[in-house]
Amino acid sequence: MVDHLANTEINSQRIATVESCFGASGQPLAIPGRVLLGEGILTKECRKKAKPRIFFLFNDILVYGSIVINRRKYSSQHIIPLDEVTLETLPDTLQMKNRWMIKTAKKSFVVSAASLTERKEWISHLEECIRHLLSKMGQQPPTEHAAPWIPDKATDICMRCTQTKFSTLTRRHHCRKCGFVVCGDCSRQRFLMPRLSPKPLRVCNLCYKQLVAAKKETEEQSKTAHSPLAGYEPSSGDDSDRSDEDRVEQWSAEAEFYTSNTAWSSFHS
């Protein structure tokens, strides 16, 4: 179907209509080979509350935005490359049914369809487009994704200290690493996560410790990898006889050293 529609007038008109609905605030969407496969309204779980959003599925991108006047005017255009997307089906909640998560390295969020059939159709078409695009690009599905933000109304207390109660004066914050709703005292730290933003982002205290530890470990591994003596244990600098005696006790009494028939020169060949 994609190849059949790629260079047709009807496809060009459909894409032009979408561009027109977003107006000057949206980015151009028409490029050679791009096909608009479908569209529909899904409910997106946002920070404050769930809101309807218009979604457009192309063969290489997913576009969504806010509805000002349905089929006439949209705003806040977002474009997600499909090669960065993975999907996860989620169980129903009391508030929302037919849910699934759209995950990327920069942003992950939950949407829901009006019916189970509609959800199956969306997921089926998305997975087909993603599979075809990854095969065409010779890439594997992404393995890392950003944590979705927990909605504000999901908790009245900090999800880390479980002590601070939120109010008009005590604001909610979101950790950019785990997505938890946390208080100010539990999220005073900032950490640079390049895949999310060029600037340091707010993270909770627990995630900050984990991120710092992971960064330190990566730096140490990098130093070891570039060391000319990589793989060797550093000397303690202690040449005392006592240390030698302690080491000898670890070896078997029958062991004979320097009795190999192998010539030393062979180690340098």
From TrEMBL:
Top-level taxon in the UniProt lineage: Eukaryota
Domain PH: 35-131
A molecular function GO annotation: phosphatidylinositol binding
Main location: cytoplasm
UniProt-listed InterPro entries: PH-like_dom_sf (IPR011993), PH_domain (IPR001849), PH_domain-containing_F (IPR051765), PH_Phafin (IPR037871), PKHF1_FYVE (IPR042762), Znf_FYVE (IPR000306), Znf_FYVE-rel (IPR017455), Znf_FYVE_PHD (IPR011011)
Every FYVE-type domain range: 152-212
Pfam families: FYVE, PH
Region of interest called Disordered, as start-end residue ranges on this chain: 218-251
Keyword entries, A-Z: Apoptosis, Cytoplasm, Lysosome, Metal-binding, Nucleus, Zinc, Zinc-finger
GO biological-process terms attached to the record: apoptotic process; endosome organization; endosome to lysosome transport; positive regulation of autophagy; positive regulation of intrinsic apoptotic signaling pathway
Entry GO CC: early endosome; lysosome; nucleus; perinuclear region of cytoplasm
Cited function: May induce apoptosis through the lysosomal-mitochondrial pathway. Translocates to the lysosome initiating the permeabilization of lysosomal membrane (LMP) and resulting in the release of CTSD and CTSL to the cytoplasm. Triggers the caspase-independent apoptosis by altering mitochondrial membrane permeabilization (MMP) resulting in the release of PDCD8.
Protein name (database record): Pleckstrin homology domain-containing family F member 1
Native source species: Podarcis lilfordi (Lilford's wall lizard)
